[in-house]
Amino acid sequence: MKWNSIVVKLGFSILLIVLAVLLPLSFIMNQIFTGFYFNNTQERINNLSERYATSISSLDKEEFLGMFETLGILTGQQILIVDDQGTIVANSGLPSLPEGQRIAEPSVALLKKGSTVQEMYTDSKIDKRFLSVGKPIFSGEEFIGGIFVLEPVEEMYQSVDMIEKAMILAGIGALFLAIGFIFIVSRKLSNPLLEMEKATRKIGKGDLQIRVEASSKDEIGSLAAAINDLAIELDRFRSNRREFFADISHELRTPITYLEGYANVLENELYQNEEEKKQYLKIIQQEANRMSKLVEDLFELSKLEEGRLPLNFEEVDVLEVTENVVFKMKIKAEEKGIKLELDRTIELPNIYADGFRMEQILINLVDNAIRYTETGKIRVHLTKEHKAIRISVTDTGGGIPVEDLQYVFDRFYRVEKSRSRELGGTGLGLAIVKQLVELQNGSIEVNSKVGEGTAFHLTFPVEKRDENEKG
Ligand code: ADP
After folding, report:
1. Same domain, 333 and 301
2. Which residue has the higher pLDDT, 97 or 423?
3. Which residue, 158, 184, 206, sits at the end of a domain?
4. Is 87 part of any domain?
5. Protein residues with CB under 6 Å of any ligand 1 atom
6. What is the CATH number of the domain that holds 274?
7. CA 136 to centroid of ligand 1, rounded, Å
8. What is the Cα–Cα distance from 7 to 82, expressed in whole angstroms?
9. What's the predicted TM-score (pTM) here?
10. What per-residue confidence (pLDDT) applies to 321?
11. Exposed site from 50, 150, 308, 411, fewest CB < 10 Å?
């Protein structure tokens, strides 16, 4: 596991968050606890010393002083009495302050002024800390000494120590939690991510059969599924492209063979007469035309498949477009002795599409109908359906066998290859038509019966333009 991995970063973040909460919390708890304890103790011994001081009027009586010493022992506090010079005259049991010893001068000065002395005192002999409050004793107006009440605070420090220890333990707990988190999450998060990284690198190198496990239902699972989809899509694209190139070279081979063959005949003067020579030249010309049409169609189809053919969407009057197509194609139909009719029953709304491409679609369908029909008529029929317009091109040609119907929109698919070639087809017309229809949100379907004819049906939605698209 790397130090800069997401999981380690997450683990340390958790540790930092826990510590960031724990440290100030323990500090605040300490402050509140000690503050409360000190205030309480101070107030208590302040009251006591005040009361004791007022109850003493003379320091001369030994038994009286002895009574205070006993009182100290009974209450668990220490009591110290000093005379007007600061010399200790009574001590309930502090070993470092024996009777006869003098207390610090500043404290005596404070007492003389009638002030209270408050301080922390540590007895070095018994290693104990006390909170001490001293009050002056007056006999009438005369200062005769002072009395100190000392309360041991060791218990409080022990409690504070306990809190600190608990916090340190919690800190260590957080560390273990973070380590545990790193190890558990690395299995759940990091390992799958690393596996996906490996897989995407392999995909990048062309190994498109690789798949990653996408069992979990979370973001990791959907990322894995997306990587798998990408691999599948790329694989499909690659095999599609491979087929496309195979198809192209196959399709180009026939005209090239014709061109080579007839050019060879002409070069070696293998013809009988001028008439035959002209015939061969005509074939060469036809094949060159076919090749150029093939290249043109291929270029258009590849642009369509890659989504690189820009469409110019506008309000399109379908009737106008259809009338144009029928007008243009009528001569070609009549040359073959076929009738071409336009048929519409009701007023039609405009659709939102590319007018030029709509015309291209219809020309292709009508051209096919003319090419694959020997006698009878071709009918272009316009109707309005619920929120859509339907355009049908129906012919009375030879029809398409049922088993071929589902393939007619595939590129280079021809029911009768030689017949299509003879009629100047490339096998790309319907593939281009389908792409163009779908790019304009339409759909195309085909019905056919051998010997009766074929009908192609186009459906386009009647989409209303948004207010802000107007003008
Ligand atoms: P082509 O250039 O060969 O016409 P298309 O893609 O336009 O290619 O059509 C594919 C095949 O579908 C044609 O080769 C033909 O066999 C069949 N086809 C298309 N239109 C018709 C039709 N109106 N009647 C019968 N067969 C058709």
Report:
1. no
2. 97
3. 158
4. yes
5. 368-369, 372, 395, 397-398, 400, 408, 413-416, 420, 425-431, 454
6. 1.10.287.130
7. 123
8. 68
9. 0.62
10. 96
11. 308
